[in-house]
Amino acid sequence: MLNKPAILGGKPTLDKPLPPYNSIGREEIGAINRLLKSGKDLSGFLGRGGEKFLGGPYVKKLENDFEKKFGVNYAVSFNSATTALQAAVAALGIGPGDQVITSPFTMPATATAILFNNAVPVFADIDPKTYCLSAESIAKKITKKTKAILIVNIFGGTPDYVPILKLAKKHNLKIIEDSAQAPGANYRGKFAGTIGDIGVYSFNVHKVIQVGEGGMMVTNNKRYAYRAQLMRNHGEAVMDDVWEKEPKTRELIAGNNFRLTELQAAVMAEQFKKLDKLNNQRIMLADYLTKKLKKFSWLEPASVLPNSKHVYYLYPIKFFSGKLGISRKTFAKAMEAEGFKLAEGYQKPIYLMPIYQKKRIYERSQFPFVSKEFSQNISYKKGDCPVAERMFEKEFLTTTLCQPPKNKAHIDLFIKALQKIGDSAGLLKKYEK
Ligand SMILES: Cc1ncc(COP(=O)(O)O)c(C=O)c1O
Prior knowledge:
By secondary structure, the chain is of the alpha/beta class. It has 16 helices and 14 strands. Helix content is 39%, strand content 12%. α1 runs antiparallel to α9 and α10 packs parallel to α15 (408-423). The structure holds pyridoxal-5'-phosphate (PLP). Pyridoxal-5'-phosphate binds at residues 80-82, 106-107, 109-110, 152, 178, 180-181, 202, 204, 215. The site of pyridoxal-5'-phosphate (PLP) has 14 residues, from α3 and α4.
């Protein structure tokens, strides 16, 4: 007798929900308590020149920790990766009339970082193995107006950077790495986020190390770091103080309040110490899952580039509906009934979202999409990036199964559930109708 899937009335594979991920422990609680008891300034920033322009001691220490660990000259903290990305684009001097090539298969903040600088995002397709931009797809989108490539190290992995770096050099393009999901990942011996001109990490609640909200930008370029600091903390207000002493540092930047608090920095300093351990736990589980998934011809496990380290913010899986004979939707529903929730599709390709379809972010103007500075007609139509669209619509799934305290026993049960669904595909096909 067939082991009946739970969706058809059988017993679910899991008898209780999977335990949630939590990276916060005694160390973070201790750090917060110490800071609060000390009575010290919880921001540490002041929006004018002088000592407090760069924040308080916890913020400075955290930045220093990032500089040391990732081997970069400058780390600049932010209140999110979204704001760090905006500052990164501004740091490069990108603005109206410029194009930046980026991925459509990402969290939408990657692309709005370009729009907030009044430049225009141009979307290139992803590689179906890494889910990141490919050099071939980028090459097709380069024009005279292209100033930079905003690469996304998605799910904790990177693209194949060698041909991308070559292409960038040939066309004199800067590279920003949106490494929000990939702190600690590595491409051929270099940390993700330190391969291009500027890298950005996120500390939001979903990430491997987190403090609810927060972000960090890293670079080896002194001027980019300085411009980012001006963006972070009311740059326009500090200029009078700074220019008098150092006329060479003259930059015209309208700043923001993108500052990380001392409270967040105190927690993050503890989280950062745990990065390698937390990443390694995920890698161990992911390697185990990859090995076990290989027996299912209708699934494709995550792949890792040679001599590189994926850190599995999420574990990506491809599902081939044609090989199993049921839709991704039915498959995901059947797995959910077994106790394993899979996320379908990840992200609608960004250019299909309404602001791009309408080319409008201001009520009375189509700037920057349609403007004096920018006459070229950028395409945001269905079919532009077929791989990203296929992933979204048909093939792509993610699981959080490789996040501790989930363990190998949970993965074994996941495999058992997959086997059950695979063996019952015929029944599920009937259920679909
Ligand atoms: C790829 C990517 N870029 C940018 C962001 C924005 O990060 P934050 O929430 O820290 O602003 C995220 C957040 O999930 C992300 O996953």
